Amino acid sequence: MLRQDLDIAIIGAGPVGGTLALALAARGRRVLLVDRADLPPMEDPAFDGRGYAIAAGCQALFATAGIWDALPFAPCPILDIDVTDGRVGRRPSALKLHFDHKAVGDAFGWIIEARSIRVAINKRLHEAGNVTLRAPATARVVRDGQGADVHVGDEIFRVKLVVAAEGRKSPLRQQAGIRVTKLPYNQSAVIFALAHEKPHNGVALEHFLPGGPFAVLPMTGTTDHPNLSAVVFTERDALAQRLYVMEDAAFMREIAARLGTRLGAFTQIGRRWMHRLEAMYAHRYYAERLVLVGDSAHGVHPIAGQGLNLGLQDVAALVDCLEGAADPGAQPVLARYQATRRPVNMAMLLGMDALDRLFSTNFAPLRLARDLGLAAVNRMPGLKRRFMLTAMGR
Questions:
Q1: Which of 97, 178, 212, 249 is the most exposed place for a label (fewest CB within 10 A)?
Q2: By the 8 A CB rule, do 201 and 79 touch?
Q3: What is the pLDDT of residues 118-142, one digit of tens each?
């Protein structure tokens, strides 16, 4: 057996785990990163239709980790956001909410292609001097009061802290006996991209419908398709299943019934993806020599595109809590991280849950009340500004 002493092991090299590894390495920590999947420096260059909404407050973390400058495809700034309410096949209510970036002086964030983030993170991971990368590989973790042994093949890595960044079904979380609570929505999201006739001008749309929100997010165009948008089409599970396998012509009619002529003529680009939606939260964020980040700790409804942003905010908070700590796995350090992040994440989860339940109904009196509420907020600059800063992660 080959033995090596490092500082921190991260299990899971997705956007959250990969960013954490790079951010810690930039602070001088010696990091082990293990993932079941291979992480080549460059991936399939084909456009796949998926994008992430990255809040302005998370851009600095990407920059510090060296990811921002390595993005191979330019991010698209979100300049304005329209929030509308309606029913399928009808024009949106005239009572709507509009957020203008000029009120806060900067873009709300960026839409970045999923493949772009993956390529940038993998490139930096292969270049980082303080990151020991094992992928594809499986880790077996044995924790004790002083640290943990991470077994990877015929290697054993002794570390002070293990970070679970494995996603919602985190084996490490289950191994530690940390309970979770799930909130089902009976909804699924069909995700894809549209090439369209009219420019989006950096405007994102969140159109609330009885079956779930219909979000259209501005993307950077290509030579072949200068006007591109990512779409998150949320519907009840049964209808979402039909939408996912529907022939293109019928699928375009379903989109038109919700989008109207806002972007002119359009066509789907790339493939469709589908994800079943549920909220989830862990009852604790740490155990002995173990801490949870990202989807291992929480999951929210994608109604405002905050899922990855919450994970990146976990990363920033954990890096700050570990700064200067002689023992990164000490209980007071992990308790401080939990106290910093869990209340914020719970508040976001409950807020997104309440929004979805408020808007995903066709009950006429409630529909009128929420439309009046949107119009009222639209006339309150101070409240609108607070909402905008929250969306920016500030």
A1: 249
A2: yes
A3: 999 999 999 998 999 999 999 999 9
Q: What is the pLDDT of residue 108?
A: 83
Distance between CA atoms of 242 and 384, rounded to whole angstroms? 37
pLDDT at position 33 is 98
Mind giving me the DSSP string for 233-273?
EEEEHHHHHHHHH--HHHHHHHHHHHHTTTT-SEEEEEEEE
Q: Are residues 221 and 336 in the same domain?
A: no
Same domain, 98 and 118: no
Total tally of structural domains belonging to the chain: 2
Do residue 143 and residue 273 come from a single domain? no
In a domain, 318, yes or no: yes
- Is 235 within 8 Å of 274 (Cβ atoms)? no
Q: Give the side-chain half-sphere CA count within 13 A for 279.
A: 21
Residue 100 lies in a domain: yes
**Cα three-residue angle 207-228-45, rounded to 5 degrees:** 125
Residue 282 β-bridge partners: 180
Contact 293, 169 (CB under 8 A): no
Question: What phi and psi values does residue 269 have, to the nearest 5 degrees?
Answer: -120, 135
Can you tell me the distance from the alpha carbon of 7 to that of 354, in angstroms, rounded to the nearest whole number?
40
What's the predicted TM-score (pTM) here?
A: 0.90
CATH code assigned at 106: 3.30.9.10
**Which pLDDT band, with edges at 50, 70 and 90, does 86 fall under?**
confident
Total count of residues recorded for the chain: 394
* DSSP designation for 165: -
Radius of gyration of the chain (CA): 22
Category of 322 on φ-ψ map: left (φ > 0), alpha (ψ -120 to 50) or beta: alpha
- Domain that residue 151 falls in: 2-40+114-182+279-355
Residue 54 · residue 75 · CB < 8 Å: yes
Instruction: Let me know the angle formed at the C-alpha of 374 by 372 and 380, rounded to the nearest 5 degrees.
Output: 105
Residues 257 and 370 in one domain: yes
**Is it the case that residue 366 has pLDDT exceeding 60?**
no
DSSP state of 49: S
Residue 132's pLDDT is what?
Answer: 97
Q: Are 342 and 373 part of one and the same domain? A: no
